[in-house]
Design goal:
This protein is mostly helical. It has 2 domains: about 50-150; about 155-190. It contains 6 helices and no strands. It has helices at about 10-35, 40-45, 55-80, 85-155, 160-170, 175-190. The termini are far apart.
């Protein structure tokens, strides 16, 4: 059976449909990729707060110094190369010595900046750890204080009065005074 030739419109429509299908698959793939790298909000909220502003600023200050230094050296070198005569040749020799010595200076500066960033990050982490320890200590202190206050309510009562309190709550009345107080405190906390 002979095939009928496609008209220009049919050909364009077919290409448009295929392009649309490819665009839809690309969008779906992008959407799935974006979902797979999204961090759950509850996980992010548990991360410690770390202030990296100062280390980032120091890093970019270092980078700016390096760029400025490289620009100055390249400019000086280009000027020297353009007019190599007499005194300029002597200047070129001096610049070449500077260019040879500067990588070591830049490397030293980079090493120093990296150490400063590392120190700042370490100090920030230590501050966070100390704050967490202090918060835990305060929470334990508050729990002890709360338990003490809960017991104080019953400390002055007789065994008979404690038994009456337990009877009102339909709790067992057996045991010594300390056990009765603990039972009442435990019932209060529930």
């Amino acid at each position: 059976m002979p095939s009928t030739p496609m008209t220009g419109t049919q050909s364009h429509n077919g290409v448009a449909r295929r392009a649309g299908a490819v665009a839809e698959r690309s969008a779906e793939t992008w959407k799935l990729g974006a979902k797979s790298i999204t961090v759950p909000v509850d996980l992010v909220s548990k991360l410690p707060m770390v202030d990296l502003t100062r280390p980032v600023q120091q890093f970019f200050q270092y980078m700016q110094k390096a760029v400025d230094l490289n620009r100055d050296l390249a400019t000086a070198w280009a000027e020297t190369v353009m007019s190599l005569s007499g005194v300029v040749r002597e200047h070129a020799k001096k610049v070449s010595h500077i260019v040879k010595d500067e990588p070591e200076s830049v490397a030293d500066l980079a090493h120093e900046q990296a150490q400063q960033v590392e120190r700042a990050a370490r100090e920030q982490a230590e501050k966070i750890e100390q704050a967490e320890k202090e918060e835990a200590r305060q929470a334990r202190q508050a729990e002890r204080e709360q338990a003490k206050q809960a017991r104080e309510r019953y400390e002055g009562l007789t065994k008979a009065e404690l038994s009456d309190e337990l009877a009102e709550r339909a709790l067992p009345k057996t045991g010594n005074v300390g056990e009765l107080i603990e039972r009442l405190v435990s019932a209060d906390s529930q």
